[in-house]
Amino acid sequence: MSATPTEDQAAVYSRLELDMLLLNIEAAARVGKRTEFFSWVQGVFQSAIAHEVLICGLAFPGTNGLRFEWQGSYPMAPELFTELCGPDQGLLYPAIRLWHERGGVPLLSSATAADARDGEGMELRRLLRHWNLDNLVAHGLPGLDGRPAGFFMLCKLAREPAPREARMITMLLPYLYAGWLRANCKTSVEARPRDAGPLLTPREQEVLDWMQKGKSNAEIAQIVGISQLTVKNHVQKILRKLGAQNRTHAVAKGISLSLVLGGVGQLF
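The structure assignment produced for this chain is given below.
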């Protein structure tokens, strides 16, 4: 006869938690569209982990890393989200790396917590303060290649994250992943035939890379060895293919689709 699990070993601590989990699982099973996913995470999911910001990362075929999207109670400008996903002062890179280094367990961090475990943890707290995101709970679903197939970061929690939040994200992660996967099955830019090939041509990809580095059309023309008019034509095609309104929006789209470095790229 097995021993009764201790409180530390128990996955669910009370009947109230069990009811809350079942309610979320039922709601997750009905998610098939982006609007339904948003309604779930801004609705009954708040009973599991109350938060203001959810950043969803999903691996797409043909992309090198994850494509991130902001799902929050308030919007973030595309250029700021580009920075948030970027390799310099971005939050996503260090969070995923720290999650991986700690064995793929739920990542809990607070901008005000005193945790001297390691420099990476201190850096993550500094970035939380920099982005005014207060605290976070983050967890990922490992892929077959060792990198995450999906990664979810909840920020601006109602309270500092504790073991309860780690339990909740552990149990609800498969449903978050499945719901976000279904919500992304028929999206505009990504809803392309499997044999359609790359979204951008190699030259357009190269131009977008230089756009992401802040180069002007004249500078790109000189670097690549083509005319400014040809660069301008490439930029217009990139905007059209990505459904972007301007260069900044195109770079943000490129990062979210892992077309340029700034999404996740090579993590490990």
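Interim note for the steering committee: The chain is about 45% helix and 15% strand. Residues 163-183 form the longest helix (21 residues).
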